[in-house]
Write a structure and sequence with these properties.
Shape: elongated
Radius of gyration: 24 Å
Largest sheet: none
Distance between the termini: 35 Å
Organism: Haloferax profundi
Keywords: Membrane, Transmembrane, Transmembrane helix
Helix content: 55-70%
Number of strands: 0
Protein name: Sodium:solute symporter
Strand content: under 5%
InterPro entries: Na_symporter_ssu (IPR019886)
Length: 144
């Protein structure tokens, strides 16, 4: 691991990887603010969430709004399937897009975890080896 020494103009500047920076952050001392995240991981994760939310709201609420704004276009028969466009968009595209967005979110979250060096497999190996995982303090803590 390298450290972020700031460097000088004459020498090369050493920087930490995102995973190394993530390991040094004490998340319990950080403020959780959805509008201004305090850590790089939280900022990157929030970008994924907001992007998905914007796409979801456009796909979910777009067809009804378009039907209200342009009823002639949205209630016209589609040539291939033979029923109105708003039926197809509301009945097929909206639910399907929710499934697609869930898949995209899981892939993006896996990429983010990999970028920051978060490994969920190690926690699962601990659960499989001991028969129990780490218990949260809210669950009574770890018994000895």
């Amino acid at each position: 691991m390298t450290t972020n020494t700031g460097g000088s103009q004459n020498g090369p500047r050493e920087t930490q990887t995102k995973a190394a920076q993530h390991e040094e952050i004490d998340y319990l001392d950080r403020e959780v603010n959805l509008l201004k995240p305090s850590t790089p991981f939280m900022r990157d994760h929030l970008k994924i969430i907001w992007t998905g939310f914007i796409v979801w709201s456009l796909v979910t609420f777009g067809p009804p709004v378009l039907t209200y704004v342009a009823p002639e276009l949205m209630t016209s028969q589609l040539p291939v399937i033979g029923f109105p466009a708003h039926y197809f968009l509301v009945g097929f595209v909206s639910p399907t897009s929710s499934l697609v967005l869930a898949f995209i979110y899981s892939r993006k979250r896996d990429q983010l975890d990999q970028t920051y060096g978060i490994d969920h497999a190690a926690a699962m190996e601990d659960v499989n080896a001991t028969g129990r995982g780490e218990t949260a303090a809210a669950d009574g803590g770890v018994t000895e």
